[in-house]
Amino acid sequence: MIWLLLLPAYFVGTFPTALIVARTRGIDIQRVGSGNPGASNIARTMGTAWGVAVFVLDGLKGAIPAGAGLLLGERATAHAMLAAAVLGHMFPLTRRFRGGKGVATMGGGALVLQPVISLGLLALWMIVRKISGKASLASLAIMFGLPIAVAVRGTPGWEVAALAGCNALVLARHVDNIKRLLGGRELSASRRT
């Protein structure tokens, strides 16, 4: 039965939140700023409030499948549906597999599956972003922090591995950000283009 749930979860992930929000202001978000259709680029180009709105909506793309998985099956089902939604966000069939980086979608699912840890990581994200001025660095911090935190908490090994696997996909999408961070060329979170 789980296979029947993965396709809908994937297509929930493909919903083009950032593109739709940007178009309401006549902006093609893939042609401005970093070109990434995500909350950070929206915040840079349209302002923080718009970025927060996209972050929340993209988070729901992970939270809804994860929550549905818990209701319809078990934790393994929820993790599989979250992974499908993250893949849908990053590699949407509807947009030639050109999607976002998956931080908010992964975060929304993690909030459902690990609420206490996720709230702590949200605080970490805000602190790192405030200190560094780099949303990408804050995102990397929480991507590394999530599997470590759930492992320290004593979560079953398969669940730690599932979350780490999803996070590895998100980290892979941040390779260019990592290179720019190391080279001192990464865009500031507050920069407007």
List the helices and strands and how they pair.
Elements: H1 2-13, H2 17-23, H3 39-46, H4 48-72, H5 75-90, H6 103-113, H7 115-132, H8 135-152, H9 157-172, H10 175-183
Helix pairs in contact: 1-4, 1-5, 3-4, 4-5, 4-6, 5-6, 5-9, 6-7, 7-8, 8-9
Q: How does this model look, in words?
A:
The chain is mostly helical and 193 residues long. It has one domain (2-183). Helix content is 73%, strand content 0%. The chain contains 10 helices and no strands. It is globular. The mean pLDDT is 90.
Q: What number of structural domains do the residues give?
A: 1
Give the amount of beta strand, in percent. Answer: under 5%
Q: Rough shape?
A: globular
Unreliable stretches (pLDDT < 50, length at least 5) are: none
List keywords for this structure.
193 residues; mainly alpha; 10 helices
Describe the structure concisely.
The protein has 193 residues and is mainly α. It contains ten helices and no strands.
